[in-house]
Each structure stands twice: as structure tokens, then as C-alpha cells.
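sorry for the late reply, my laptop died twice this morning and i had to redo everyting from scratch. anyway the thing you sent over, i finally got around to it. pasting the sequence first so we're on the same page, its 120 residues, then the predicted structure underneath. double check i copied it right bc i was rushing
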Amino acid sequence: MTRYPITTGTQTVTAAGPVTGTLSTATLTNLSTLYLDVTGLSAGTCRISIEDSATGTFGDALPVKVWHFECGAPADGITVSATLDEVPNLRKGATGNALRVNVLALSSGATLNLAASVDA
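ok and here's the structure:
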């Protein structure tokens, strides 16, 4: 298996919205596990989704997995994952298919660091 990054390295997030980086899954037909690494949530809570797109433009984005985090996680962060069995409708293997990370909610004034990847 090869690990492919979804985000462009570890991103520091200060507001809700899409995170820098996307991954084309047009040629990645054997995806197995999605990973999200979260460190340094400075305060409050956040809700993060990995979304897919059929067109790669994300005007049609659908959340395939959503996680909720609270401040106070281990200092070295937390890694969560989802197997393909948990996200059976993930769009992959067709022209335009892509993944991205979207911070759906972040407590006011909070920051966090995150990185996402997928095994294929």
C-alpha cells in the first residue's frame, strides 16, 4: 500500500472552511483507509470532514466521514481513520473524482493543525 496525502502537508487552521490540498482519486481505484491527524486544538471544539467530489471542483462535495474533536486531546495529537467499509459510497476511479478536507466548525479563536491522507 502507498499513502497518498490529501492535504498539502500539515496545515494550520484558524477558521472553518476547506483546507489547502486535494487528491485526485481518478486513478486510485483500490483505496482502503482514510486518515486524519489532528494536533494542537488550542481551545473549544472542531468538526472536520473528508469530502469527495465527482467533478474535482467540489461544487458537488459530499462528506464521506465526519469527526468531532474537543480541546484536551493528547499533546502529540490524535489520528483517526475510516476504512472503505465505513465509507462505501466514496467516489473514486472516474475522471474528476477527488478528496479534500473541510473544517465544518471551529470554536471562535481556536487553532488546530491537521493532515489527511489515504492508503491505496
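The chain has no helices and ten strands.
thats about all i looked at so far, will dig more tmrw
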